[in-house]
Design brief:
Elements lengths: L4 H15 L4 H10 L6 E6 L2 E5 L5 E6 L2 E5 L4 H15 L4 E5 L5 H4 L9 E7 H12 L11 E3 L2 E6 L2 E6 L11 E4 L4 E3 L5 E2 L13 H13 L6 E3 L2 E2 L6 E2 L1 H23 L4 H4 L17 H12 L2
Parallel strand pairs: 4-5, 5-6, 6-7, 11-13, 12-14
Antiparallel strand pairs: 1-2, 2-3, 3-4, 8-9, 9-10, 10-11, 13-15
Helix pairs in contact: 6-7, 7-9
Bound molecules: zinc ion.
Length: about 300
Amino acid sequence: MSFSRRDFLASSAVALGAGFIGRPALARAWQQQMPAWTPVFTEIRRGVGFFTGRGGTVGYLINAGGVVVVDSQFPDSAKLLVEGINQRSKNRPVDRLINTHHHGDHSGGNIAFKGLAKKVVAHERAAELIRQAAAAPNAAEQLSPDSTFTDVWREEIGDEWVRAKHYGRAHTGGDAVITFERANVAHMGDLMFNRRVPVIDRRNGALVANWIVVLEKAAADHASDTTYIFGHAGASLPVIGTRADLMAFRDYMTAALNHTRAAIKAGQTREQYTAAPLTLPGFEAYGAHNANTLGIFFDEMSSF
Ligand SMILES: [Zn+2]
């Protein structure tokens, strides 16, 4: 997804409410000192771990033979990401920076790896979209992917095999799952929103009907006990999980499309379908869908 401003505001509000009511000057001073998000590194196994800060969850591998980072969040959180990676790797270069897809909350921090990452890897469509965004007028300086693939990329880094695989159109037209094969950990990028309404980038190739298939293919390609890293999760829900979480998300999206299909069949117009926020029965944990998301479902279902 593109913004975590909602989370930012929510955590600021909680913090302010806690101690600064009626003391705006103090509150402002505190706010300037403290980021509303905390950078956290969590190891899973065999040198593979994840970093949370501001934006999509980052994955990493640090072993005796090399360093890999998956996604880079935003430029500000990427600085803290790079600091932590350097500390843990004893300042070794990053052999591969891999982008799961082009969105700014996953690739905007690539620039922090300039001069540090030997290669930046992405699916060809994601790479093209990152380069396009970087070429826009007033765009911030960017480190775009220089190594692309269409279906599968695979490389040995130290005693780990790292694989990037594109399963077809889903959250965008250029998503990849990054697997650390021996560690049995797979980074799903934004193919996984854990109990949270997903961002669907229809303009750049997203297709919800195929996203459902992609989740099934990805699950079938991994062991039943693989640990998955999720791009995003609902408030205070985990950003890692299991195959069951992937299947829960598949079921949610199936229900969403079924709901839309039924509405179209019943004669609802786009305007009627998007008129009010919708919470899907049985999938309340995902929260309400706004007009934008409902419109995307409607457009996709109308196009068949
Ligand atoms: Zn995204």
